[in-house]
């Protein structure tokens, strides 16, 4: 098929080309078998690999070769609907995703229902937050797949574009995944699909977001990790935390002016462009205050997960946290930054298991 489906909502020429080649791949996929499916692909044209430029052209060359090798040559299947939608801004992306999911649930009885998200971590977080705020029950009925097309792809369901399209071409099952919900004292909710962090790490993420257009996320993260180590405590003096850590019926409490806290949806979590900050089975980490010299000395260990076992790092298996802090602080959710005020505490942060259905 050489032209976009008449029901596509795509205006940019390079996104139409992406839609054409992706449709060819999906038409030749063994994913849908004989049962058919309804597939909506929501595209963020501002994502790194989807913006016009050398990276986009390299990706398209790869996808065309893959489509040529895998395509069935069929122009249509009566039982397979594939539609592409180009977003305009963050608010539009969330509203569009909610509308698409409602339509999938209402219109695709007896067929697989799949929402594919083409973007980076911020895009995936915006969409997931909108869906679990507006239509959480509907998420039990659809499959989701997040393509790694941003400058940061720690939320994606494949490490590379090549791996992602291999899954789309041949996936035969799905798995469940968790999310993280943060509730403030004032009743606000925030969602994360990878990690929630506070302190030094959130400060690094804030600086990274401001400057990430200049280079790749891994390089920028490392640069601003160095800057943050030098200036964080001058800008955000350490204040006391009280943290109640719950796992099943067991509760532990920790108090102190922690330098950094990280809560993941599971252990073995990477972020910041692949940094192994939660390297073991545990999904919650506390870092004790350190001198400037000590921070500079051990910082490289965090990139490869070698900080696990150091006396300044404490790890826990946690289902939920209740967190109080003596003043305002920055919170990072999948790379997005929110200033949490003193009035927002205590926060309740919990891992909600088995709420996402992901292709594999």
Structural commentary:
By secondary structure, this protein is an alpha+beta fold. It has 2 domains: about 15-170, Rossmann fold; about 180-355, Sandwich (Tumour Suppressor Smad4). The protein has 8 helices and 18 strands. The strands form 4 sheets. A 6-stranded antiparallel beta sheet has the order 6-5-18-15-8-9, covered by helices on one side. The protein has a 6-stranded antiparallel beta sheet with strand order 14-13-10-7-16-17, covered by helices on one side. The longest helix is centred in the middle third of the chain and has 19 residues, at about 215-235. The two termini are about 25 Å apart. The relative contact order is 0.13.
Topology:
Elements lengths: L12 H15 L9 E7 L10 H17 L9 E7 L3 H18 L4 E8 L1 H14 L8 E6 L12 H10 L3 E10 L5 E4 L2 E5 H12 L5 H19 L5 E7 L2 E7 L3 E5 L4 E3 L3 E4 L5 E4 L4 H12 L9 E4 L3 E6 L3 E5 L2 E5 L6 E13 L1
Parallel strand pairs: 1-2, 1-3, 3-4
Antiparallel strand pairs: 5-6, 5-18, 7-10, 7-16, 8-9, 8-15, 10-13, 11-12, 13-14, 15-18, 16-17
Briefly, what CATH class of the largest domain? Mainly Beta
Q: Which CATH architecture of the largest domain is right?
A: Sandwich
The proportion of strand residues reads 25-35%
Largest sheet: 6 strands, antiparallel
Helical content (DSSP H or I, runs of 4+)? 25-40%
- The general outline is globular
Please list the strands of the largest sheet in the order they lie side by side: 6-5-18-15-8-9
Order of helices and strands: HEHEHEHEHEEEHHEEEEEEHEEEEE
The number of distinct β-strands equals 18
Q: Under CATH, the topology of the largest domain is which?
A: Tumour Suppressor Smad4
